[in-house]
Amino acid sequence: MSACVPAGATESAHIERAHPPHSPPPGRRRRFRVAGADLSAAVAVFLIALPLSLGIALATGAPLQAGLVAAAVGGLVAGRLGGSPLQVSGPAAGLTVVTADLIQQYGWRTTCAITVLAGVAQLGLGCLRVARAALAVSPAIVHGMLTGIGVTIAVAQAHIVLGGEPQSSVPDNLRALPAQLARLDTAALAVSVLTLAVLLLWPRLPGRAGHLLRRMPAALVAVTGATAVAAAAGLVLPVVDLPSWHSHALAGLPDGPVLGLVAAVLTTTLVCSVQSLLGATAVDKLAAARPGAGHVVRSDLDRELLGQGAANVVSGTLGGLPVAGVAVRSTANVHAGAVSRNSTIIHGALVVAAALLLVPLLELIPLAALAALVMAVGLRMVSLHHIRTVTRHREVLVYAVTALGVISLGVLEGVALGIAVAVGVALHRLTRTRITHEEENGVHHVHVRGQLTFLAVPRLSRALHLVPQGTDVVVSLNGSFMDHAAYETLQDWQSTHTARGGTVEITGRRTGVRIAEPGELATEPAHGGESGTSGDCRCRPWTAWRNHQCERPSPAPDIAAGPDGTPGTDERDRGTDPASSAPARGRTPSGRQLVRGLSTFQRRTAPLVRGELARLAREGQRPSQLFLTCADSRVVTSMITSSGPGDLFVVRNVGNLVPPPGVESGDDSVAAAIEYAVDVLAVRSITVCGHSGCGAMQALLGSRPGSPAVTPLGRWLRHGGPSLERLRDPGAPAPRLAGRTPADDVERLCLTNVVQQLEHLRAHEAVARALEEGSLELHGVYFHVGEAQAYLLAEQEEEVRVFDRVREVDLVV
């Protein structure tokens, strides 16, 4: 079968086998059936799509029917053929600036032709199966592009909100704004302010009634309310004008310079494809995060690109706007409980019905209300969360250049500038290496800060040749990458220097931590001079005892009986110190595991850390962190923090609880540890770490309110009561995970508990004093055991606390 053919039957069967909730069970064909969840989700998405489609068409300057055509085609064509069953496609705000420029430059009929050609280009890319390559674009460029588009939309719609007409570019709109304010249309402004107020306040309605009312989309309520108020007050305002479908303009032949048309097609293809593919991956995460979702198959991105291409061909041919995956509608579709692509298809059919039957009602909507709606969408595209993320990753320059380029020059030019700056920043980081040489107490120190590539080899060679022969040298590598040329240079110099009587020690970021080749430890002789003995464990670090592959199949050799019938020693222990083998005698399987672990530490790890531990023994402990976490055996603090001896002052208890000061708990151990860490050890940071599947949180959820605590565990868990009350308080915003909602009530309570215990920490006198002096900071961490994924509580002043996913690049940075 050709890669270009979506292959409905074959692919559908694949989805049925891999992900039953998305389609009927395999077998013989049955008639079309719609799940109740799909029908309700389709209605919810339709109510959002209808006003947004008209607003986006208004913002682009296209005929308003074009927005409805694109919404219908996105639901029917992209919904049926696309590779992301739950993604909803249609006219997207991210395409507003591109489409508006095309209409102004080439006219509407040629813009439709460009949309058709962009769809053909997407079909070609889908045939080449290069959809994954689109995800290689730096997130800073994507977010910068969306920010630039959002600012452009908001500034342009501000003129319609004030009762005027937008100009062709952001600078022109800004220059014309004072004159527009001078001739302000109060009626248009009143309708727009009402629309914005409803959009802002509707999701925040309190109480049970507010919870019921919030099921109605804020966009629909805002536009309907503004329309009703304008009609009741008798305001004379420009309203939606939907000409007869008989006069609707369809696509014409492209008319314009060839290079300009090619650039227009490329720009439309780029924005449509990137937004749709990124949206598909986001929808996968949302669907996987739903309670009871089970195993969710990832979207077929190449098929999604084919579906988007087909939708753009149809939409352009029928005189519609360009089509792409829309985040707002897709999120609503997932949250409404959609289980298959049927919800998207039904939503498209509802848009067709509205376009044919509801024209008299749609023509009552004031344009100022639609402009306010689109302006709000544009402002939301400027995400403070994304700005904080790119700042944390030191990509704010790429983000800013892309956004300013889109605002000043256009989408394609801004993205090109962003790519150029991103490449420049990457090369700068790759080549920025600082190499210094100094002598201290007769020992020569060569410090390397940055990435060691072939470009830094000349400077590395000069620094190494400043070291006299026969001396002691410490080479400190403070970087995450070393290429082959730098590695060979360093190894050749090390061999030459040691051959002439010198010593070389190569360390990493922390003093005393030796950098070794990946295979070095695996081939290193066991302690005592023997190599490859059967007692030498070869398992990976952090392997649980029960998963060790070095165990003998039978416990008999471990405790073989001696001639007199008493437990003897294993043959592996012959010739070793009797004191070292004595503890293994007569042990249970758990005892043997403990002794084996201790023995492996003495044989393999102790020689590597003995120098560092000796230094700590001389100087005393000086940890920088107090790490308070649960006693759960699955949470290994040194593993998830990549820390070593002397780094963390660890306090563990059931439920990672911090009793508030003054509480009569009969246990002051946590308060004593906090006081000792802050006042004596002078730690600079305190971290409260919760985890998934916490048994203490499950016990709290299952406890009966007011029941007496008669056991030590029950009395201790009373300190988790404030966390449970916070979770059940309808007026308190619940903490959440970035990118997905908590899986169940246990995870919600685990997240809430971290936030609550941080508040308890702030109430302790020592902590409050250090925070006021600026010498201490608090952090919240949530560790998902099943995913081996850490989430860090974002530093923000917003009401809703968000735990951000810690990614691999964060560790490198």
UniProtKB/TrEMBL annotation:
SUPFAM superfamilies: beta-carbonic anhydrase, cab, SpoIIaa-like
Family: Belongs to the beta-class carbonic anhydrase family.
Cited function: Catalyzes the reversible hydration of carbon dioxide to form bicarbonate.
InterPro entries reported for this sequence: Carbonic_anhydrase, Carbonic_anhydrase_sf, SLC26A/SulP_dom, SLC26A/SulP_fam, STAS_dom_sf
N-terminal signal peptide: none
A UniProt-annotated Pfam family: Pro_CA
Keyword Transmembrane helix in record: yes
Membrane topology of the entry: Multi-pass membrane protein
Keyword terms of this UniProt record: Membrane, Transmembrane, Transmembrane helix
Transmembrane regions listed in the UniProt entry: 39-59, 106-128, 140-162, 182-205, 217-238, 258-280, 350-377, 397-427
Domain SLC26A/SulP transporter: 37-401
Predominant localisation class: membrane
Domain of life, per lineage: Bacteria
Subcellular location: Membrane
Sequence segments annotated as region (Disordered): 1-28, 496-536, 550-594
Protein name: SulP family inorganic anion transporter
